[in-house]
Amino acid sequence: MSDLPRESDRPLNRKSLAVLWTQAQPSVAAFIRSLVPDYHQAQDLLQQTAVVVFEKFETFDHARPFVAWAIGIARIEVMRHRQGRARAGLVFNSDQVDRIVRAFESMDTELDDMRDALAACMNELPDRNRQLIRLRYGHQMSVAGIGEHVQMKPNAVMVALHRVRNALRVCIQRRLQRGDAPA
User: What is the mean pLDDT of residues 85-105?
Assistant: First the structure.
């Protein structure tokens, strides 16, 4: 028998990588697109970054934010790309790239705070309102489909969703202004 670990011996690592990458991918993609204007090149770099993230995941320090780590890998991939394309025209220098990295890291913290506030505000909603939000955004149901499911007219569903979204917006803003931790 081989001493090499089998794929089935590491399901938690693969599963946690999948969850972390799914959450980080939009930020990493936006970071790359901010530095690489060509859509196809940016997509290629995003895929290359995903490959490197997969290959190096075992070295990831779980005490650090995954998004920052993935953006660090993307930064290296972009720098490699830039070196290969330096003669092609305008490229950012290292200081500019570092400023963009810091901006994305701070945005990620803000987004985490917003997600935490949203989760706390969702928990404060009455069950009926929470159900409407989950059906609309969690299950991607149409207003008509929600109406059938909860026995409401579509117009009533639209009005209720509008009111719930406003209540969530106010709640999130209040929590962010006060710096509330999630409940």
Answer: 66
pLDDT, tens digit, for every residue of 71-88?
999 999 998 887 776 655
Which DSSP category does 38 fall into?
-
The rounded Cα 130 to chain-centroid distance in angstroms is: 22
Helix 154-178 to helix 143-150 angle (10° resolution) is 100
pLDDT tens, residue by residue, 12-30 = 577 888 899 998 999 899 8
42 to 33, 37, 95, 164: CA distances (angstroms): 6, 7, 20, 37
* Whether this model's pTM surpasses 0.70: no
Write down all domains in the chain, each with its CATH number in brackets.
Answer: 6-91 (1.10.1740), 111-183 (1.10.10.10)
| 66, two tokens | 């995954």
DSSP state of 2: -
Residue 183 CA to residue 90 CA, distance in Å, equals 48
Residue appearing with tokens 């993609």? 29
